[in-house]
């Protein structure tokens, strides 16, 4: 999970204060009740239902890991003696493990993502494997390919993350191969690429690829991905995450500081639409 996710907690507290001291409102005025974090959380319902229930989500996961497995097989077959050892670089959250229980736990509540509750989730070690992820990783490890988990989970939760990955049967679940940190992953990618030949980068976020999208606005991140189109499916494999990602703060400058209503408006402001004639 990207830890640039910040809560709209301040405005939620402010709305709560107003509501607590307001007299009972007539029905018409209640229709104009402030749009809260709880309302905003309702917007995640379809994405979460899809991730947690759909066969189609499983299909896309299997497709991603099967493709990555083919790239591993091909690299192993082409490897010459004296070449650098092979490695897979993969993000963790929503690339190999499923944290949707954390996000589904926000639905129906006036609460947002926070660093504090996310750390509790990491230490609880309850993330599930995405369908097919453990099999893919173990097959690659068996072929002599090392796995590096380049994650923006933080160091404080590392022991929980290790416990979680070990329980899921992931290989290389150790302090050398789980590279925590924050922000731009490129320095960690570069450190690995010095000693390894990277077979494939895997992620659910454009920033999981070594293409320089970190901190870029919507137009630029889309343009960078378009410029790198030939690498998708050949050097990069992407998993679907409709729930969150760095595409979200790219919706508007200062997005994390917006009110719940402001975030909702930023989300709809980019729609292209069609409506039938009356
Ligand atoms: Mg991720």
Would you write up a description of this structure?
The protein is α/β, with parallel strands linked by helices. The chain has one domain: Rossmann fold, CATH 3.40.50. It is built from twelve helices and seven strands. The protein has helices spanning 9-21, 27-30, 37-42, 45-53, 55-78, 100-104, 115-124, 133-142, 158-167, 186-195, 218-227, 260-268; strands at 86-90, 97-98, 128-129, 146-150, 178-179, 197-203, 236-238. The strands form two sheets. Strands 5-4-1-6-7 form a five-stranded parallel beta sheet, with helices on both faces. Strands 2-3 form a two-stranded antiparallel sheet. It is globular and about 75 Å long. Residues 6-22 have low confidence and may be disordered. Bound molecules: magnesium ion. Magnesium ion is lined by residues 91, 93-95, 204-205.
């Amino acid at each position: 999970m990207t830890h640039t996710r910040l809560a709209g907690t301040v405005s939620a507290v402010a709305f709560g204060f107003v509501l607590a001291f307001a007299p009972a409102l007539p029905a018409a005025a209640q229709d104009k009740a402030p749009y809260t974090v709880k309302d905003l959380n309702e917007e995640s319902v379809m994405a979460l239902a899809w991730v947690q229930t759909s066969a189609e989500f499983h299909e896309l996961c299997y497709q991603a890991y099967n493709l990555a497995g083919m790239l591993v097989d091909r690299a192993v077959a082409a490897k010459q003696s004296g070449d650098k050892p092979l490695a897979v670089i993969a993000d963790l959250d929503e690339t190999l493990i499923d944290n949707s229980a954390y996000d589904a736990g926000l639905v129906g509540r006036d609460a947002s993502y926070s660093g504090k509750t996310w750390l509790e989730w990491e230490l609880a070690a309850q993330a599930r494997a995405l369908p097919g992820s453990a099999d893919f990783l173990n097959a690659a490890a068996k072929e002599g390919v090392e796995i590096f988990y380049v994650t923006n989970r933080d160091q404080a939760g590392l022991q929980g993350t290790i416990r979680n990955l070990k329980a899921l049967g992931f290989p290389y679940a150790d302090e050398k191969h789980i590279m925590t940190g924050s922000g731009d992953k490129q320095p960690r990618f570069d450190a690995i690429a010095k000693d390894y030949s990277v077979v494939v980068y895997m992620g659910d976020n454009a920033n999981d690829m070594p293409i320089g999208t970190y901190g870029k606005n919507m137009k630029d991140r889309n343009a960078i991905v378009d410029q790198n189109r030939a690498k998708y499916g050949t050097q990069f494999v992407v998993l679907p995450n409709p729930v969150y990602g760095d595409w979200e703060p790219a919706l508007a400058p200062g997005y994390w500081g917006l009110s719940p209503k402001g975030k909702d408006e930023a989300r709809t402001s980019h729609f292209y639409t069609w409506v039938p004639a009356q």
